[in-house]
Write a structure and sequence with these properties.
- Helix content is 0%, strand content 50%.
- The protein has no helices and eleven strands.
- The strands form two sheets. Strands 2, 4, 5, 6, 9, 10 and 11 form a seven-stranded mixed beta sheet that branches.
- It is globular, with a radius of gyration of 14 Å.
C-alpha cells in the first residue's frame, strides 16, 4: 500500500519560494504505468492538478498556471517527490496534496479521480 506524507508548507510573501516534499513508501518506481503528482485545493473549489512525474522515465507534466515557476522532481534515492515553487502568487494559496496512481493514459494526469493514494496535505499561503 502506498503511503504519502507531505511537508514544507508555510506562509510567504508574493514573489518568494517554497519547497514541498512528499515522503513516499510502498510505491513501485519501476512500474511503467505509475505517476506521482501534486494537487492543490481551495475551499469550495475542485482539486486541481499542479504537476506530475511519470516515474519510470522522469517525464513531467505541469498545469499552465504554474509552468515556468514550479518544478516537480524525484530525489536520487526515489523516496521523495518534491515541488519547488518559485515566484509564488497569492492565487497559489491552497492546501497542497501529494498523490499516486497507476494509469495507461498520460493525458489524464491532472484528473484527481484517477489517483488512488493521497497524502494528508500541507497548507501554502501566499500574501500580497
Amino acid at each position: 500500500q502506498v503511503q504519502l506524507v507531505e511537508s514544507g508548507g508555510g506562509s510567504v510573501q508574493a514573489g518568494e519560494s517554497l519547497r514541498l516534499s512528499c515522503a513516499v513508501s510502498g510505491y513501485n518506481y519501476r512500474s511503467r504505468n505509475n505517476y506521482l503528482a501534486w494537487f492543490r485545493q481551495v475551499p469550495g473549489k475542485e482539486r486541481e492538478g499542479v504537476a506530475a512525474v511519470y516515474t519510470s522515465n522522469g517525464a513531467t507534466f505541469y498545469a499552465d498556471s504554474v509552468k515556468g515557476r514550479f518544478t516537480i522532481s524525484q530525489d536520487n534515492a526515489k523516496t521523495t517527490v518534491d515541488l519547488q515553487m518559485n515566484s509564488l502568487k497569492p492565487e497559489d494559496t491552497a492546501m497542497y496534496y501529494c498523490a499516486a496512481r497507476s494509469s495507461l493514459s498520460w493525458w489524464t494526469w491532472s484528473a484527481p479521480d484517477t489517483y488512488n493514494s493521497w497524502g494528508q496535505g500541507t497548507q501554502v499561503t501566499v500574501s500580497s
